[in-house]
Amino acid sequence: MIIDTTEVQTINSFSTSGFFKEVYGLIWIIPILTLILEITIGVLVIVWLEREISAAIQQRIGPEYAGPLGILQAIADGTKLLLKEDLLPSRGDIRLFSVGPSIAVISVLLSYLVIPFGYRLVLADLGIGVFLWIAISSIAPIGLLMSGYGSNNKYSFSGGLRAAAQSISYEIPLTLCVLSISLRLEIGRNDQVVLPYDSDLDSSTVDIVEAQSKYGFWGWNLWRQPIGFLVFLISSLAECERLPFDLPEAEEELVAGYQTEYSGIKYALFYLASYLNLLVSSLFVTVLYLGGWNFSIPYIPIPELFRINQMAGIFGMTIVIFITLAKAYLFLFISITTRWTLPRMRIDQLLNLGWKFLLPISLGNLLLTTSSQLVSL
Amino acid sequence: MSEFAPIFIYLGFSLLVSLILVGLPFLFFANSSTYPEKLSAYECGFDPFGDARSRFDIRFYLVSILFIIFDLEVTFFFPWAISLNKIDLFGFWSMMAFLLILTIGFLYEWKRGALDWE
């Protein structure tokens, strides 16, 4: 009886105080549009950031003519690509050719559903949160294969096959690292009061961030799972096909890989998918390993800040979004610097790294985490 | 069920956005001038040697099959990892038996060279 009323009370309090969870149906359009706008602006910022950082690394000046400091460069590029002629290669499979880039973009866009920007600022607080990202990111290689085959070009075909092989090889270490984090053995088990957001089946991203919120930045999963962090970083760079795992686009080898025959807006879609993937990987690194939206300076008594984190006030929301984005942009900086610093790996070195090195290490990490959790109980 | 509503609406939006972007050039280029040089496959300026749909290496196929096996293994890991507090040591060792069988398979394919040369 006590559990029943507690549950009912918590359900009531959730449904009345949740900012986005109140109503069904089309009211969701507003947060979805906000997210899409935020993603678009994020991609524009990343493109500009990449060009500025690469310019700084190569000791030259980046874009400076499109808008002040070259901020509108990405928009200028996008408009140019929009107005270019859309070529369909002769004897290529037109339907596969046209649909390929769209599938790559859609699968990456859908991954943004489960990223929490704040305590209630997540589009879909599913119980299977992170698993959704893993599952949907496995659809991207299908788009790459379609593009490679439908182009009727040997280089595209080779590039598409290599890109798909690379993507699927690095899915498994990625999934195993994510699994090691969502392992949760709660100390308060069957007979104590179950906290309201503690359901039985949980890979929810909100709960992963909540579990890191206790000791400031010493509570980050980065310290609990250092091996997992390194493996996740390498695997997500390989998933995004960024250097040093750049072989599908290697200009010396394959012209432009599966993107060779593309022009105009479909080329822009591949470009967009690549940067969207980079942004979502950085956001996932912050959510999984860096404590998400928590203001991570430890042991400073800021009770009013904590209350702001839980409230749905506008000031609290902006602070929380700002913290998440700041941590994500730290990883963007690392990814971009890595791209312009390290040389490219060959395809056999790449697949060796994925299968023979990262897979056993991430499996070992999972077993280590499991056994240490079981032993400590 | 209400937590899946945003997923469908978001999926609809993504489809709309990408298909609009793909269909937009058709507005601008009603009659574009295409000639065979523009439309033929790019092979560094030469005419393409032979057909593009040639045979490809069987190692790509092997990598895909290995991926399926390990992906299914990881799919079985997910519910086990989450419910570990309820199944204690017995559940742990059951999954270790499953993992042992798959690890033996992995070592076999490693030694036989299915993961080599690419």
From TrEMBL, chain A:
TM spans, by residue? 23-49, 94-115, 121-146, 268-291, 311-336, 357-375
Annotated membrane topology is:
Multi-pass membrane protein
Biological process GO annotation list? aerobic respiration
Q: Where in the cell is it found?
A: Cell membrane; Membrane
User: Is NAD found in the keyword set?
Assistant: yes
Give the top-rank taxon of the lineage listed in the UniProt record for this protein: Eukaryota
Pfam families in UniProt: NADHdh (PF00146)
Keyword annotations of the record: Membrane, NAD, Transmembrane, Transmembrane helix
The protein's matches in InterPro entries, at most eight in alphabetical order, are given as: NADH_UbQ_OxRdtase_su1/FPO, NADH_UbQ_OxRdtase_su1_CS
Q: Which GO terms describe its molecular function?
A: NADH dehydrogenase activity
Cite a GO CC annotation: plasma membrane
Which PANTHER family does the record associate with it?
NADH DEHYDROGENASE SUBUNIT 1, NADH-UBIQUINONE OXIDOREDUCTASE CHAIN 1
Query: What family classification does the UniProt entry report for this protein?
Result: Belongs to the complex I subunit 1 family.
Recorded protein name is NAD(P)H dehydrogenase subunit 1
Species per Swiss-Prot/TrEMBL record: Rhynchospora pubera
Lineage per the UniProt record: Eukaryota, Viridiplantae, Streptophyta, Embryophyta, Tracheophyta
UniProtKB/TrEMBL annotation, chain B:
Organism superkingdom = Eukaryota
Q: Does the keyword Mitochondrion apply?
A: yes
Provide the Gene Ontology terms for cellular component.
mitochondrial membrane; NADH dehydrogenase complex
Question: Membrane spanning segments where?
Answer: 7-30, 58-82, 89-108
Q: Which reaction does it catalyse?
A: a ubiquinone + NADH + 5 H(+)(in) = a ubiquinol + NAD(+) + 4 H(+)(out)
Q: Does the keyword Mitochondrion apply?
A: yes
Q: Where in the cell is it found?
A: Mitochondrion membrane
- The protein's predominant localisation is mitochondrion
Record family assignment: Belongs to the complex I subunit 3 family.
The entry's protein name is NADH-ubiquinone oxidoreductase chain 3
